[in-house]
Write a structure and sequence with these properties.
2 copies of one chain form a homodimer. Chain A has 526 residues and is mainly α. Chain A folds into 2 domains: 121-409 and 496-523, no CATH class; 422-490, no CATH class. Chain A contains 18 helices and 9 strands. In chain A, the strands form 4 sheets. Chain A has a 3-stranded antiparallel β-sheet. In chain A, a hairpin with a 4-residue loop joins strand 5 (422-424) and strand 6 (429-431). In chain A, helix 4 packs antiparallel against helix 5. Chains A and B meet through helix 1, helix 2, helix 3, helix 4 and helix 5 of A and helix 1, helix 2, helix 3, helix 4 and helix 5 of B. Chains A, B: One of its GO terms (molecular function) is glycosyltransferase activity. Chains A, B: It comes from Adineta ricciae. Chains A, B: One of its GO terms (biological process) is dolichol-linked oligosaccharide biosynthetic process. Chains A, B: The chain crosses the membrane at residues 124-145, 177-196, 211-230, 242-263, 283-304, 311-327, 339-357, 369-387, 499-519.
Chain lengths: 526, 526
């Protein structure tokens, strides 16, 4: 609680400080209320009144002034994005709530420079603010985990660390992800208030179309945290877990429809002669986005089971997205990437303390809560930030792991309850776990998959005769973790984690940046 | 899962059915695309282009067509509320997603009838749809509770029913509210998609200002469910629990600011000569709304501890709000009351199965999850439905209970860990529980409170000499539950529940309707 209070107090103080500074620094000559612009709006308004047959505008939803401001808002936004001078200085009374610096700067660039920096002083302030509260949030998480650990164990939220010699001796607290997610949500609630504080004066247009994005994003994330935590506490059946993210992503899809509703994809150059320049996917695009939500939510959860792996990969993905956002912040989709940035900074800051405590040997476990939380956050950012394809590239190791898991997930090959590596107590190293079954039980498709992944070295299998003279197959389980153990022999758990992190870094991040900034030119026009 | 699938399938089927029916029934002569109206919009648009100095509108957020539709939307809304003819028949292609009946009716009423019914055919459809999925949701809850009960007990989410003779023998599953809340959230996600489905064609204006209300409401509720469930699993400190609802209500306040930002209250007639006709509360109004959120979230939780009480009072409040909404649906704030209706119907439908199983003798407990969930739902509805004052009237018993609890909550009088009634095993009836302390430890304010509540018959206290010849005070605990037991003598738990329900009904609901529809005329102009 003390920490929460600190966050709130720091937020309010910074808010007050900056707004005071902004008032003395930016709000000059308040009498010059951009009169010409207001007149224009007046004119539009008059025309409108004319067109609705003289009906007195009494019960309309927005008051007249707000409507004017709305018109004005669209102008301002357009001008901002075209690099036009923005001179609106009025409407900054302290009447409603406290005032904020707002967008009072004057950009004077040529109309033709579409790639002008669209991040203004206020956006920079919000980023700095975000960084500060994220750091505070991280510190809070760092303090809360050891404080609450015992409470979790008492509430039966604990597990044994199976990859250790003394595994059955120590109870390790589970579901610590809920602490991260809780603090993340608190930070984001404060962040929303800050981001939209520039519109907190009575004559401002409130950008509802932006606001819905934040709310829908947080709603989906919050639902997944709830689902994850409920799953940790009472095991939820896998088919419920599979489809709930889809329902939780419904608001996201609606927001996408409301704000963009473009479902047209531009095809890469090589296929254009055959399929045309672009395709309108229509409803299929929404199905695709739903699938992204489901995939991302579960992707992290199925590449798990080794100390530090779940948080480690999330932090690497989040870091990569952060770098990607920072690069793209100079581009024409700056607003979307700013949106993403606001989520990534607290995610990283709150995850790092958990990573430290979850790293081998794990002091705490993250639980499904963390996996769903991080996964859904990425999905949300990808969908609303308009880079779901790039986001999927960051998930390449997870995609490979998923494809590799398909034979076992869909029962082409028998799947044991757990596919975690096996500990060799003598060496204190991990071996790939395996599964045994009769060769005659294997269907042709299963056999094909076995052969394919064996040829591509992802698994190792051998045939032998059992006592009843039946041909048996013994194969390592179909996960990247076991594949790594096949490639590099028995490994200590920490070394395994490091290698998996390296794979994430190389095949998730570096490869993506290579594809996104180098390879892309061969497929799309710049 | 089967139930979820059923809900989704029924939703999609109904959607398709109604949209097919609507297309054959309402969408006549698609060539007559309300040409005059579009021309008007064209005109406005031309004027606008003229006024922004010929800047080519390329990077503006909404495409030109959407902007026109936006203008059109405002017209349509205004006309709808003024009872003007609405004739828009165009734009209903099945291109984007499937089509919906939309607002294709023609209301032809006099412009002067401000109280014309503003609920149209589509709204009626959504209400019917809401009722149907709510019933399905209720059935699902009814099936899920017995299915999941054992899982909750296994997850250490259980408690003893202290007011029973055999209390220590049976483990009763706790936190069943999370099932209700989960199904409620799923229903509301589907509901959102249905409510906004009329805007799911590419040329529609998407009413973001309405959409934010739903999202903010669900976000706040979802956060409180998470908090409640976390509180059930790992006890959270009371000061965290006290302030988190405030943070969770931040988006609500922003939505209120964005959509209404009126903070002016009209004063009742008797005080107008002294204080004026109206007051602009400014930021204080937001503080008030925050307080409403905090109060409602905790109000149900502090009037608890008897079988069926938490759900019972919630169902009565929800039912009263429902009736209030249905009455007001004919008024000028129909849209807000429709919004409230969408939440109340599933809340009641999902709560009733829980009430049946929580009624004396309780088969399951509801947990903090349910209390926070129901409380926050009421707070959200009150704030965004613009009847927070009426909502508080529905909470009269809770307010009295809170005021009665103040001396113990704020330690003017010693507060034991539990203030539940005491079971008399011989009679199997409940007696008021009590607390003993030395008279000399009592501060003057505490003494005053003790005397006041004793005179008003809410508590019973007596003084006596202990063995050390010190004057001791023995007083019943300061809760409505104990007060009822003071008034009516020892009662069986079920009878106590019934009386408390009656109090809720009389002092919560009937009194409110009396105040709201009769007494109000003496204080405000009609």
């Amino acid at each position: 609680m003390r920490y929460l209070q600190q966050i709130v107090i720091v937020a309010v103080l910074m808010q007050l400080l900056v707004s005071t500074w902004a008032r003395t620094r930016f709000v000059r000559e308040p009498s010059l209320v951009a009169s010409s612009l207001w007149n224009e709006i007046e004119e539009i308004d008059n025309n409108e009144s004319g067109s609705d047959h003289g009906v007195v505008d009494r019960s309309t939803f927005w008051p007249s002034k707000a409507k004017k401001a709305y018109h004005y808002g669209m102008e301002e936004r357009r001008k901002k994005y075209l690099g036009e001078p923005v001179n609106f200085q009025g409407g900054h009374s302290l009447q409603g709530l406290w005032a904020m610096p707002g967008r009072h700067k004057t950009i004077s660039m040529k109309r033709t420079t579409m790639s002008s920096p669209v991040i203004d002083r206020f956006d920079l302030f919000t980023i700095v603010f975000n960084i500060i509260i994220s750091i505070i949030g991280g510190i809070v998480v760092n303090r809360l985990i050891p404080m609450l650990k015992e409470k979790f164990i008492k509430a039966q939220l604990w597990g044994y660390d199976l990859n250790k010699r003394n595994s059955k001796e120590i109870k390790v607290a589970e579901s610590q992800g809920v602490i991260v997610a809780g603090i993340f949500l608190v930070l984001m609630f404060i962040m929303i208030a800050i981001v939209f504080s520039e519109h907190l004066h009575p004559e401002s247009d409130f950008p509802n179309h932006k606001f819905v994005e934040y709310l829908a994003a947080l709603l989906s994330i919050c639902c997944m945290v709830l689902l994850g935590f409920a799953d940790d506490v009472i095991d939820i059946r896998w088919n419920v877990k599979l489809w709930l993210p889809m329902i939780a992503s419904l608001p996201l899809l609606l927001v996408y429809f409301a704000n963009y509703h473009s479902t047209t994809i531009i095809l890469p150059k090589p296929v254009r002669p055959y399929f045309g320049q672009q395709w309108n996917l229509g409803i299929l695009y929404y199905v695709y986005m739903s699938m992204v939500a489901i995939f991302c939510t579960h992707a992290i959860n199925i590449l798990a089971g080794v100390n530090g792996l779940e948080v480690g990969q999330s932090v690497i993905i989040a870091g990569s997205v952060l770098i990607f956002n920072l690069i793209e912040l100079q581009g024409i989709c700056a607003e979307e990437h700013l949106f993403s940035l606001y989520f990534m900074i607290p995610l990283i800051a709150c995850s790092i303390p958990l990573l430290i405590r979850n790293w081998c040997p794990a002091e705490v476990f993250v639980g499904d809560t963390y996996c769903y939380f991080a996964g859904m956050t990425f999905a949300v950012i990808g969908i609303l930030g308009h880079f779901s394809k790039t986001m999927l590239l960051f998930f390449i190791p997870q995609i490979i792991n998923f494809l590799l898991s398909v034979p076992q997930l869909f029962k082409f090959i028998p799947c044991p309850r757990h596919r975690l590596p096996k500990l060799d107590p003598a060496l204190n190293k991990l071996n790939p776990s395996d599964v045994e079954f009769k060769k005659k039980d294997l269907k042709p498709l299963g056999w094909l998959m076995l052969r394919f992944f064996s040829l591509t070295k992802f698994i190792r299998y051998r045939e032998y005769q059992n006592n009843d003279n039946e041909t048996m197959i013994n194969t390592t389980n179909f996960t990247i973790i076991n594949s790594v153990l096949c490639w590099f022999g028995p490994l200590h758990e920490e070394k395994l984690s490091r290698i998996l992190m390296l794979i994430q870094l190389v095949f998730g991040s570096l490869l993506t940046f290579f594809v996104r900034y180098y390879l892309v030119r061969f497929f799309y026009d710049s």
